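Lecture 7 notes: from sequence to structure.
We start with the chain below.
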Amino acid sequence: MAKRKVPTIVFIIILILSIIALDVVRQVQFGGNKDDIVLSVLYTSEKKGWINSIAPDFPDWFAQRNPGLTVRLQFEVQGTRTSMLSILAGESKPTIWSPAAMIWVPLLDWAWDRKFGTEILDFGQVKSLVASPIIIGTWQSYRDENNFTSWADLYDLADTELKLAHTSAQESNSGYMAVLLEITAASGKQPDEITLEDLQNTTIQAWLEKVESKAVLYGTSTGFLAKQAVQLGPSAINAMILYENLIIETAKDGEAFSKWGDNLVAIYPEEGTLWSDHPMAILNASWVTPEERFAAQEFEAFLLSKENQQKAIPFGFRPGNETLVNDTDVISEMQNVFNPENGVSLNLTIPRFDVPTDGEILDRVPDLWLKTRATTLEQANYSEYWQLGMNPFAYFSLIFGVLVILVVIRKRRRES
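Predicted structure tokens for the same chain:
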């Protein structure tokens, strides 16, 4: 009998040690102890490289500025629309929400007010962390052959061998913004001037249908879309709507030129464009304590500091802190990244559109895309999120699960 009880005892010991170990792992993530202010941050993957490169320094930075207080960062990475829906459903309760673009901020606030009758954030206080304009990416040879400079050119090229790609307007920020910019071009209005009547206008719908009929790929991940363009080459995809920083990323990688003898370049549409400006919203939610709000404000100051804004530039982001626009150190750093060799320009002269704030209109943009998209395509269901890697909690959970299975198997073998 005693021999049969050993596996059970072992199981209990492993369980106790595992719980203790899990608590230790939680506390060592970016430093910390049980008395820490736990700052929950829900953000999108586009800026993950930059955030991960600087976040480990924040606890010490915070402690030096606030003697007697300690903080621990707790990150969750989700796509923009998924993160918004997660907050609305109560599945995620972050202190900080950082979607990929400012247009999602009024949309969440509008949806929250419809559901709960209150405001969840102060739009006027939301600041951009880093920024990347929405551009039309194309091959240098295709741009030169077609004198490609505008959204209007995209429409005209739909009469030729245009092969367009952008992500799903339902699932991806860049795809959503792509459709909003197509509506802007079709209507001749600024994005913040678009009305519900415009979304129902058959002439505008026909404009979108013509352009979208040339789509050869709808992805769920903008990063994956850029990689697909490089893999498939100029004959497969010759225009894509995505982020400027991805053009820089592909240029640095060098695969496009080595494979096709051609490079991807950014077209900055002369009519103007929206920016993926990665706002940081501190939520006015019941679950956010005064201490967490204070820590969030400190994290915002940390991210917007000159030192950390400069660290975002090698990742292809422009500083979100507008006070650094004329800083000589920042300009020097940007000149190393934002140049023709990387397929982009440093100084932009095109208009930067204001963000629409009417939540009802923003909510209906994906519906118009569903009505006008290319219906013969299967959506590419690939995603880059699997590349994020497991955090320590996931590794521990996997190991713990394997141990439990092994103990149970051992026990059953002994009993049989």
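Points to note: The first strand starts at residue 37 and ends at 43. The first helix runs from residue 2 to 28.
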